[in-house]
Specification:
This protein is α/β, with parallel strands linked by helices. It is 44% helix and 19% strand. It is found in: Membrane.
């Protein structure tokens, strides 16, 4: 796999994702622990369809990290990324999907697949001090 993780997020949360999450994962205290991340802003191939870019990014990454927010749920492309990553986890029976809950979201705001995922997968809460 080319990347350690593909980061799936809403562009509305890009400041937090780029300044905090990606910065810390790509530039940790020990440079040997730096991760190779795929983000749509810099790694999607121009001229290729968005859907093919999503599929290739997920298939070429060991994990997909979803930054879950209300804006994420409202974005067609973000939810497409989630569904592709979820399928990768379920159909290939591997621990592919990592969810970071950026904000509290009620179950009534989620579609059935996302609800099932939140109930069955462990997730990280961005507000947790340990995070």
């Amino acid at each position: 796999k080319r990347f350690d993780a593909f980061i799936s997020y809403s562009s509305s949360n890009s400041d937090w994702v780029l300044d905090n999450l990606i910065h810390k994962l790509e530039s940790p205290f020990d440079s040997h622990d730096a991760l190779s991340l795929c983000i749509h802003k810099r790694d999607f191939v121009g001229g290729k369809s968005i859907l093919l870019n999503i599929i290739d990014s997920i298939e070429n990454s060991h994990h997909t990290i979803v930054v879950l927010s209300r804006q994420f749920i409202q974005s067609v492309w973000s939810m497409t990324e989630f569904k592709e990553a979820y399928e990768e986890s379920v159909t290939k029976k591997r621990r592919h999907l990592i969810i970071i809950k950026y904000e509290d979201i009620q179950e009534t705001e989620m579609d059935s697949m996302l609800k099932r995922c939140i109930k069955t997968f462990t997730y990280i809460d961005a507000k947790d001090p340990k995070f």
